[in-house]
Amino acid sequence: MTGLSTILIAAGVFLGAGVYSFAKQGMPRGVVVLLALASAMCLVAGVLRIQGIWD
After folding, report:
1. Cβ-contact 54, 48 below 8 angstroms
2. How far is it, in rounded angstroms, from Cα 46 to Cα 23?
């Protein structure tokens, strides 16, 4: 596992926790959806880096 994949996965988990927090605070749905998309993209990119697809 490279450093970049670790950073991407950590960022995805961090943003995922933000989704949960923002949803619980009653933030606008658009903000929560945008944050969820960013979290999903970070997690997918990190996993694809681990699998070596982009090497």
Report:
1. yes
2. 24
* 28 SS3 class: coil
The predicted model scores a pTM of 0.86
Q: Which pLDDT tens digits describe the chain residue by residue (55 residues)? A: 678 899 999 999 999 999 999 999 999 999 999 999 999 999 999 999 888 765 5
CB 43 within 8 A of CB 3: no
Classify burial at 49, counting beta carbons within 10 Å of its beta carbon; exposed 0-12, middle 13-18, buried 19 or more.
buried
At 52 the three-state DSSP class reads coil
| Whole-number Cα distances in Å, 9 to 25, 41, 54 | 24, 10, 15
